[in-house]
Amino acid sequence: MSTETAAGPSPHTLSYASTPEALQALAAAVAEAQQGRPLHPVTVIAPSHSSALDIKHYLGRTLNNGRGSAAVRTVTLPDLADELAAAGAQLSGRAPLPAVVREGAITAVLAQAPGLFEQVADQPATARAIASTSSVLDAACPENLNNLPRLVREVARVHRSATAALGARWYTGHERYTAATTALGTPQAARRLGSVLGFQLAPEHDPSAAAFRTALDSQHGITHLTAASSLTEDETVLSASDADDEARAVVRLVIERLAANEPGHRIGVFYSAADPYRTLLARRLTEAGIEFVGAGARGLADSALARGLANLLSLDPAAPDVRIILDTLSQGSPNWRDGELPSSAVCERLHAHPPEDTEEDEATEDLPDFEKQRRQNYARFTEFVAILGERLARLFNAGSWTAAAAGLTDFVDEFFAPRQGSPELEPLEARKRVTDLLRELDLLEGIAPAPSAAAIRAAVSRGIDSGRFWAGSSGTGVVLGSYADGVGRDLDTVFIVGAADGLAPARIRENPLLPDAAIPLLAAPLPTVHERAAAAKDQFQRLLATGTRRTVLYPRGSLRAGGGLSPSRWLGEAKIRDLQSFAHGLTHGDPSGLAATPQEWRVRRLLTEGPDSDAVDRVLAAALEVRDHRRIGTFSRFNGNLAAVAGSIIDPDVPISPTNLEDWVISPLGYFLRRILKAELFEDVTLEVQISHMQRGNLMHQVLEDYVLELTSGSHPDARRLLEIAEKAFEDTANPAWLKHTWDRDKSRMRADLAQVHDADDAARQTGWTHIGVEAEFGVPEEEHPVELDLPDGSTVRFRGKVDRVDRHSDGQVLVIDYKTGKSDKYKSLKESDPTAGGTRFQLPVYGLFARRFRQDNTAEVRAEYRFITARGDYRSVGYAVTDDVVATLRADAGLIMAALRAGVFPPRPESDRGINHTTMMGAAGVRHTWERLQADPALSDYSRFFQEEK
Length: 951
Prior knowledge:
Elements: E1 3-5, E2 13-16, H1 19-33, E3 42-46, H2 49-62, E4 72-76, H3 77-88, E5 95-96, H4 99-112, H5 124-140, H6 150-166, E6 170-171, H7 173-183, H8 187-193, E7 195-199, H9 207-220, E8 223-227, E9 236-240, H10 243-259, E10 267-271, H11 274-287, E11 292-299, H12 304-313, H13 322-330, H14 344-352, H15 369-396, H16 401-415, H17 425-440, H18 453-466, E12 468-471, E13 478-482, H19 483-486, E14 493-497, H20 529-544, E15 549-555, E16 575-578, H21 582-588, H22 598-609, H23 618-632, H24 658-666, H25 668-676, H26 693-712, H27 719-733, H28 740-766, E17 769-778, E18 787-790, E19 796-799, E20 801-809, E21 814-820, H29 843-851, E22 862-868, E23 877-881, H30 884-903, H31 918-922, H32 924-934
Parallel strand pairs: 2-8, 3-4, 3-7, 5-6, 7-8, 9-15, 9-16, 10-13, 10-14, 11-13, 14-15, 21-22
Antiparallel strand pairs: 1-2, 11-12, 17-20, 18-19, 20-21, 22-23
Helix pairs in contact: 3-7, 4-5, 4-6, 5-6, 7-9, 10-11, 12-13, 12-18, 13-14, 14-15, 15-16, 16-17, 23-32, 24-25, 26-27, 27-28
């Protein structure tokens, strides 16, 4: 039933309790207007394009017994203004003003005359904020600016200057409405419009639109039909634990309606805030296999192409940050048109460990094939980085926006070339969107200042952030949109989500550049904060009128901010019913008996029938098996038991280093990841502020190696020469990222340590010791044969390695030395009676076996020792004579570890939680939890003595 109100926004307003009633009245009004005049034009103004399309379909179904009417048009107010302005030809030859062009003009004004904005004039956010306010001032900027507050006066000054700079090429929304208002008085407009009906129109916030609507009403007499509603005390609002549970609940409710044979296009889901509801609802509907019409879960910024472009544009052309390049490559979006790059994993490894530099005249034919390929890959990657920097430099130095737009298009074509066989709709749509926004930058030519790197980045970022992908088309699925999208819709069932205070109503803030206090001083009235809040409530009540069935939901908690949320004050005294959480539904079954997605069905069935049921999804059952085995501590394939593939893990004929055995003891799983799978951790040296312990050790090793090599070639010991070699090594090793004062301190310490080592070695030389080997290798091609050791099970292990130094005494004794730059504490248990320190240290006995080759007398003693060459290690020596008993211990301990390797035993014993290693990358707490329950497994009992924790 309708009631005519005298106090509404128009003297011709008809109000209804629901949108379906208002639609019936609209059809009756159209029929009445065309009574006896079937071709009499009728114009229906709708609040949105979606509403206009719904009204068109509704009238087509209901007018003239379903035959519709050819003379009825449904439009929005802006579309009607466009039609009238075009018909009046006042804007002929001009184009609508794009936001990017307005922002460019304001940027130019700020660059030339920043005024009050001098400190922030070069920030893109400043131009963006003023541009947003400028669009409002198109209709409201007064002639006299002197009465305005200082900040508002400056904004108005910038607005006026930018508007004047734009010239006659563009027209604003204000000019469009002004031209349309002028055209209203023509006979052509009267014939075009006929009878005018307004459906569910809210008050206009734009002064220009309000003036046009007032003129339209006064000259053509709009009949307004509105519908608004509110919740009653008998209605129930559903409350979910958070927005995600709310979205899942809505999907279940939608499935119920679909199961009741309600067409999907007759169902609408409308949210209060795009963040987080737009993405959550789109994702949950997609997971449930429900087609919908509305903004998709992903925006342009989520596409690999747009994200990769933004990443590469952020680089400094003079010194591209390789970390950003590697990150972009790992996302898979770059595709170099002019060459094929190695995989992102290969590029990361090459960046972390580049090939050693070689002299130009050094032959490379003798290098192994894998090393040749490695050098080729590195050359290709560095070429890519260099060309990328050149292209960015050329782009950022473009002299005009036309050149910049063309350069950006070429940049995308070169570094993000289309891939063959990539028919996915979204990549194609993303490429089209990116191409369009890059071409749009050409519009800035002659308006914005000359392009700079910052301006290009800001313009591209703005376009990317504003792009959204659309899902579905009208009439093909459930309607998804904001509260505004739900007003005036022809639907049966409506779900209204996010009805919590803080979301509905959302907090409305003043525009700091145009506060409410300045509104009375403007040339046209603008809505205040209170008026905008009243309009938001009015919109909610109009939304409540949509459909014949409505369900309102709100979240009790926030996904991000934490804390609780209260039901919206707009809900009145409606009853609240709490919904159970998604997790509760999985374990106890949803009250409706419905599962929204295939995943939910699989999880429920798994929980009901157990993982051994043949009907249970095998992938999900395996996932649960992984979780249980790691939680309980079962030595299975999920916890390092690779017995099923043991024969293919290691090659017994390939020599192994003694440190490999030590690595297995430290963490068998870490050994498998690092040594077998080659899953190296990427250590970014550009993030370091000082030399690392490992780098310091390698540096001192290199200095001593070079010095002792000279001594073995006949040079005389000279401390000054040692320091000369050190200074050259310091120069070659220095990292620009290191703090100068820490690097100076470290160099000073290394000089002192090297001097101490020189003095100790010089004293040893005086007692009859001679250097006979430096960095002597064994077990590698072109070097000494591997050290072979027969094991208790009859097999043979072959060792490879490199010893730092071999000395021989005048009495025939041989000493093999391995330099150490750390502390000596963890080596103190090494002695002849325990040469492997309980099966944890294998270098000295293996090196001792190798050093036997340097004996001139087979009865001469061979000693192996660690030489601590820094003050941290107190310049100590730890070692022993490598006797037959030592070799027997080595044979027993190495035999046990080799048996474990051949058997596929790689349990996840945790490494140290200090620094970065595979344990910390996987989560040290989780690895420790698994190991505490796993280490007592009988299958590991043979190796338990290796896994004793250090005291």
